[in-house]
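2024-03-11 09:14:02 DEBUG pipeline.ingest accepted 1 chain
2024-03-11 09:14:02 DEBUG pipeline.ingest length=798
2024-03-11 09:14:03 DEBUG pipeline.predict start
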Amino acid sequence: MLRLKQLKIKNCRGIRDGPNLVFENGGMLLCGDNGTGKSSYIDAIEKILTDKCPSLESGTQTLSWKKHGTHIKHKGNPEIELILTDGKTDYIVSDTKSPDKYPKNVIAFLNSAHIHPFILHRKTLLDFVDAKPLERYKAIEGFLQLDEFKGFEENLKELLADCTAKYNDADGRKNENVRALQLRLGLSTESTVDAETCINKINQQLTSLGIPSLKSLEDIPDRVKKTEENLAPLKHDENLQKWTNSHTILGEVQKNEVVDAAGQNYSESRSILLTKQTGIKGHFYAEILEQGLKWIQEDNLVRCPLCDGTIKADDVARFVEKRIRENNEIIILTNDQNQKFRTFVSIITANRNVLIKFQTSLPEGLDPDLLKKLDLLIAEYNKLVQTHSEMHPPEKIDEELELLNKLNPDTIIQDLTTQITAICSQFSDHERYGNLFNAKTALESLKTHQKNLTVCECELAHYEESYNQLQLLVKHAEQARKNTVQNLMNTIGALADSYFQKIHPEETIGRPQLEITERGTGSIKLTSTFYGKEDDPRGHYSEGHIDTLGLCLFLAICRAQHQQNPEFSLLILDDVMHSVDGGHRLRTAELIFTEFGDHQIIITTHDRMWFEILKAVSRSNGNTKKYKEYYLAGWSIEEGPVLGDHLSDYEWLISSEGMKFSPEDRVMKAGRLLEQILQNLCDSLSISVPFRLRGDYTIDPLWNSFYSKAKKQKEFYEKSKACLDSIEKLRQQRNWVGAHWNAWALSLTAEESKRFAQSVIDLRKYVFCEACNQFIIRISQLDDQWSCKKEHLKFKRN
């Protein structure tokens, strides 16, 4: 399993040339004030592992890594080198090496980093809690790994679109066959082309030629045979056959008045619709309203997935009904426009195809000038078909029709017909031959087009049924994805609550729930419980509870993700704890190191007390992993981050190193340690402190409140009296040393500073249990006894 081993960094964000960071197998703890470069290190790790830096590449502030990745006084591009190790072999990952050049295990690690949520910034934490449902879904969509679901749904929707296209194609072919039969048999455009109508019409031709009438479509082969028998004696000239065939094909061209009427109907219908649409605000889409209402009713939605507003299904249904009723004319006009568009396109396509077929079958002998006009007419029809592959404004339609009319299509067709007729008349028996040939062609057309119509009808029924089935599959696929995501959210919610309860035991809050509220694109609603009331946590929780709730949700997502891919186990928390009090901080630290002991953990913070707690918990009994500890003492624009002494005040005071420093340094450290101890004790022992508007409680009010309370706790005071009274007498040293220039501090002796420091160290021994790794707490159920968790330290009140 790969772990981070070392980060080398240069010319990156606020870092000029290091200092570089080393990671232990457990991870790293990094402390530093705001502005000392902590997040620059995290940004570098994120950039090298994911090729992204959200703090810069948000896309909303025109920021970029390339442009803003450096901002201190140096030259050169950012250079990042991250060393990974599996315990035996080290692998160098740099921003200059192509990802596909790494070994397979490194590539797998980097791929996991791209999809796993392993870094939590404070902004990300708050954004997730504060996000709208749709944005919250997008924030964790990568974790959900829904590629297979989404791919399946997209394929189904592509099939739906393909099915619709094929249905329209079959419908168009059906209409073409209908019009071809009407033309071939001389039926009006309003006539039906059912078998009975067509048979009656063609029988008129057959009777006049002395050929038995058709009784059914099955008789067609026999009648074709009889027309051929009648044609046989007349087939003395092959050219007559060709000219007659060309004449017959030309007769299938629909007159320009039909084309023009279809175009004008389409243009007028489109004009009426567009005029009507300009009278309403925005656009009206009946399908969206109807589908949206269907989703609301099927999923029992109560929150809008777009704006997070409240939804009342009955009100929405009434609104949709009202909108559709108000805009019913729009719906009718839209359907009318679409139908007339398809009719117009079908007619011009059919004419174009007939003319091309005529041109390819035509024998030599026609007037060359007339053939040039035919070429221009075919070219114009080609242009029409290509132009109207999509809808255009009425002006464009009228313009195209006018260009066609200028060619006088009917005149060209008539002139061609006249010339062909004249050529045919030169042959003997041409009139009977033409009638017999037309009858034969009509019979063959009837057979072909009726067969085509049957096929089209079958296809239309098939595609209609397929469309309905595909719609049902899409519905089930969306529901399956929704159920899968909801199951994941339930798992995450339950896991997050178990974490939350460990941080906030015996508090009647928690039980976060992530609910998928919308099908299709998806959105997530976050609710939580506050003293029996289930609602949005932002409306009831304190800032500290919001912090821990967001953290627990993130940790739950990480854990769920790790269960799917245990080979990737990296957790980075970038300065996420801002508003959590002492007791909760300790439990949060214990949660992180206990529940994620199988991860390599990196934590940054600006809070010294939180840093000390993290260090203490990471070193506690049972934790076999080591953590590298760094403290950033400052930052300058010339040098970047400056590493300082990362030892805690307590460790420093009890070390031999601390004894070498000046009395003033010793008192400063002891005073800071005392302040930390008192803040924790006043919190854990529920000791009231005089209110301060700014909340910056210094030693005096904290000490006075604690000292007064401690003297009433008989057993505790008897054991700790010496150090308590000593601190009471000597704590003024802290104020003297804290002055910018004070002669009293200069006269402070080593013995005096040692006594004050030792008194603080002794107090810590009475109030902080190294075994439990916590400060003593007040146990109200045992008559306000003060005790650590496992009663290693225990003080009765009386």
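2024-03-11 09:14:41 DEBUG pipeline.report DSSP finds 27 helices and 19 strands in the chain.
2024-03-11 09:14:41 DEBUG pipeline.predict end
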